[in-house]
Amino acid sequence: MRAFILLVFLSACCLAQRPKPCQSPRLLTGTLSVATQKENLMASAKYTYDALGQRIRLREFGSYDNKSFHFDVLLLFQKGVMYKIDKKNKTCCKKPLKTDFHPLAIPEDANLLGQVVLGSSSGPGQGVLVNTWEGELQMKNRTAKYISTVTEFGCVPITTMFHTSKSGWMVTSFFNNVIGLAEPQELIPPRFCKDAQLEEEEDEDPATFFSLF
C-alpha cells in the first residue's frame, strides 16, 4: 500500500513539473529583431503590445535587399485599421488591417521539444529556464510551421521561428522585455492622424502583421 501511494505521489510530481502551453503577459513593452531566410530582411523594432485592447505599436528600422528603411505603425485590430505614422512631417496614412489578432501564446496543441537553461545553472542569476515548443498553424491557403521558446516562469517570449513555403523561415527574437505598458500613449493615434482617410488601392493586398516585415 505504501509503495502504491509513493508511486501515485511521484507520478503527480512528474505531471506537475511537465511544462504546459501558456499565454504571455497581456501587456508587454520591449525590443525585437526580425530576419528572414529568402527575402534578405534584417530589422529591429521597439514594440508595445496590448492583448487586452488588441493593439500593437512597432517602430522599426532595418534593411531589405540592401536598402535601408524605417517605419512607424500602429495596428488596431478591433477597429481593423493600421496607421503608418510620420512624426517628423506630422503625416499619417490609414489602411485596412484585415487579419485577426493572435496573442503571444503557446497554442494548446503545441508539442514540447525540450526545456533548457539559457546561460548557466551554476549560480543564481546566471541563467534562465526556458521551454521550446513546435507546431503548425493553419493560415489562408497554406500551413505554417513554428518553433517558439518562452520562459518557464511568466511565459515571456524569447524567440519564434515561423516558416511558410512562400517566405521560408522568419526568426523573431525578443529582448529587453518589460511587463506592462511603459508608454501607454504609444497605442493611441497621434492628433494629426484624426482626419486621415482610409486608403485601399486596387490590387493591393490588405496589410497583415507578417507583411509588415
Automatic annotation (TrEMBL):
Signal peptide: 1-16
Source organism, top-level taxon: Eukaryota
Coiled coil: none
Keyword Zinc appears in the UniProt entry: no
A cellular component term, taken from the record's GO annotations: extracellular region
Pfam families hit by this protein: Ependymin (PF00811)
Keywords attached to this entry: Signal
InterPro entries: Ependymin
Record-level Gene Ontology MF annotations: calcium ion binding
Gene Ontology BP term (one): cell-matrix adhesion
Family to which this protein belongs: Belongs to the ependymin family.
Name of the molecule in the record: Ependymin
Source organism (scientific name): Pogonophryne albipinna
